[in-house]
Design goal:
Elements (H helix, E strand, L loop, with lengths): L2 H12 L5 E2 L17 H22 L2 E6 L6 H9 L4 E3 L7 H13 L5 E6 L11 H13 L3 E5 L11 H20 L4 E6 L2 E6 L15 H8 L7
Helix pairs in contact: 2-3, 4-5
Length: 232
């Protein structure tokens, strides 16, 4: 399961139950593993949605904002934003500036790029809690730039459907490794992916911790070098 499930699993393990954890969440925020299964499928769905928005954004010359899931982690926004060619990617781990975003969009307009795609993680900080992040940014960007702006909140569609082949393979690898731990009676551990190898870590090292995007993450750096804005 995700963070809550694994925290509970650790507590049950401390009470003497034989527990093996398997990281499963689309948010990819489970600590101690490079990737949880479900994440790749969610990224595929979000990327396809971004691809579809390019067509209407271009034809209507609009700013299109798409909000993706991820809770307090920006992994889905980061990966789908890069894969889908997002011009601006906003994640909770990096503080953004609305005026900087507006300036970036106006510079694109002056460079004869009349439309832009903004990929937003649901967990970014906004001052109006009653609004979705996408709706708030759509309103603010329209006010700051005068450009026609539309928002899409992808929502729970990211959590359903057929899993990607990569997720199916990863889940199979995790399940096999978990069975091996049971056979060896090595309980109180979580199977994990580390540099494409399957290993395991103590649940005590996982419980209560969150895997967030490091601002110095190589993908963030590469995206910035390619001209993607993170609103800074």
């Amino acid at each position: 399961g995700g963070n809550g499930t694994l925290k509970t699993a650790h507590l049950l393990s401390q009470e003497g139950l034989n527990i093996i954890g398997i990281p499963k969440t689309i948010d990819n925020d489970v600590f101690g593993t490079d990737q949880s299964f479900g994440f790749d499928s969610a990224v595929n769905i979000a990327t396809e949605a971004i691809d579809r928005l390019h067509s209407t954004a271009n034809s209507h010359k609009r700013i299109m904002i798409i909000e993706v899931m991820g809770h307090n982690a920006g992994w889905i926004a980061l990966y789908s934003g890069i894969a889908g060619g997002g011009d601006v990617i906003l994640i909770p781990e990096l503080k953004y500036n609305e005026e900087k975003i507006a300036e970036y969009l106006m510079n694109r307009l002056r460079d004869n790029k009349p439309y832009s795609i903004i990929v937003v993680a649901e967990g970014i900080k906004i001052p109006v809690k009653e609004e979705s992040a996408a709706h708030y940014l759509s309103r603010r960007i329209s006010e700051l730039t005068g450009l026609e702006t539309r928002e899409t909140v992808l929502g729970y569609v990211q959590r359903g459907g057929s899993p990607s082949p990569m997720d199916r393979v990863l889940a199979t690898r995790y399940g096999s490794a978990a069975a091996d731990l049971i056979a060896k009676r090595e309980y109180g551990r979580m199977v994990a992916l580390r540099e494409n190898d399957i290993t395991s870590v103590p649940l005590a090292e996982v419980a209560g911790k969150i895997n967030l995007v490091n601002p110095e993450n190589g993908m963030v750096v590469k995206a910035k070098n390619m001209g993607t804005s993170f609103g800074e």
